[in-house]
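Exercise: predict the fold of this chain.
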Amino acid sequence: DPEQAIPILEEAVDIARNADIASDLPYGLLLLALHLPPDESDRALALLDEAAAIGTRLGDLEGVADVTGVQAEMAFRRGDWQAELRAATGAAELEFQFRGSVRFGLHFWRAAEAFAVLGYLEPAAVLWGLVDVPYTDAEAAERLTGIESALREGLGDQRLAELKARGAALDAADAVAYLRKETGALKN
C-alpha cells in the first residue's frame, strides 16, 4: 500500500542519510521511487539518479544495475523510448560486468521494446531471441504479446524466427556487445 509505504520509506531514507549509512541509502531511494505515484515521476527520477550516484561511489554495480533497470521501466511508462533504450543498455552492461550474465533477459526485453517502438525491428528481433522473462502478471503479458505481434507484423514469421534464433545463439558477452553497438548506432 503506497500510502503506508511512502512515509515509512521516507523515514528510512532520512535515517540512512542522517546516520550516514551509505550502503542502505540507494536501496531505500530505489524503493521510495518505485512507490511514488505517477504524478511524482520527476521526484522518482531524482531519487533514482541519487541512488545510482551513491551506488557508483560505493562500487555497488549490482545496485546501480538495479536502479538503471528501474530507470528504463520509468522511461517506458513516460513513453521516452530513447531513454528506455539507453537505460536498458546501461543496466545490461553493468549486470554483465558484475554477474557475467544478464538475468532472464529483462534488460534485453526493455531494449527490444524500445527498438521496436522506434521502428528498428531487426535489432529488436535479435534481442527478442534473448528474452526469457518469467513474469506472468497481466501487464507484462500484454507488453510481451504486443512486442511479439509488432515484430511478427513488421518482419513476417520467417524473418522473425531467423533473427530470434540469431539472438538466442549469442552468449552473454556477445549479446551485450550487440546491444551496445545497436544502441550506439542510433546516436549517429
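Check your answer against the key: DSSP finds ten helices and no strands in the chain.
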